[in-house]
Design a protein that fits this description.
With 140 residues, this protein is mainly α. The chain has a domain at 24-117: Hypothetical Protein Yqey, Chain: A, domain1. It has helices at residues 4-13, 27-42, 45-62, 71-94, 98-115, 123-139. Helix 2 (27-42) packs antiparallel against helix 3 (45-62) and helix 4 runs antiparallel to helix 5 (98-115). It is flat, with a radius of gyration of 24 Å. The relative contact order is 0.09. The mean pLDDT is 84. It comes from Lachnellula subtilissima.
């Protein structure tokens, strides 16, 4: 009869790991998570609501075919959310709801603050890079 020690030892040999390597979150998402904690401590309700909404949208996107893995995808989400807030603000203004329009403007301000932190390549830099690449091909 096998002892209990032998059975336990044989179970340990057959351990399989199905986990994949964890991908690192984009730096912008890490900053948003850190700022969420700061907003909680400061009791900044407007910023807190915006950051929670962004994290919620990011979580929902992670369950689709196109999860947010880069700062550029995060920037696209920020711009999309900002455009939705602008449209809502315009509708509120048209209907005489200045209080709700002001709330949307505050949200837009927070979104624009984060969108301005993402570094993007300017058109001139792209032209120089393409021109340099074409020069190498023509010269070779």
């Amino acid at each position: 009869m096998l002892s209990r020690q032998t059975i336990r030892a044989s179970r340990l040999c057959c351990v399989r790991s199905y986990a994949t390597g964890a991908t690192s979150a984009p730096p912008m998402l890490l900053k948003i998570r850190a700022d969420l904690k700061t907003a909680m401590r400061a009791k900044d309700a407007n910023r807190l609501a915006v950051l929670r909404a962004l994290l919620s949208q990011t979580l929902n996107a992670s369950k689709t075919n196109t999860p947010i893995n880069t700062d550029m995808q995060m920037l696209a989400l920020l711009r999309k959310t900002s455009a939705q807030s602008r449209a809502a603000s315009d509708e509120f203004t048209k209907n005489g709801r200045e209080d709700l329009a002001a709330k949307e403007q505050d949200q837009i301000r927070v979104l624009e603050e984060y969108a301005g932190n993402v570094e993007v390549v300017g058109e001139e830099e792209v032209r120089r890079a393409v021109g340099g690449g074409c020069g190498c091909v023509e010269g070779g």
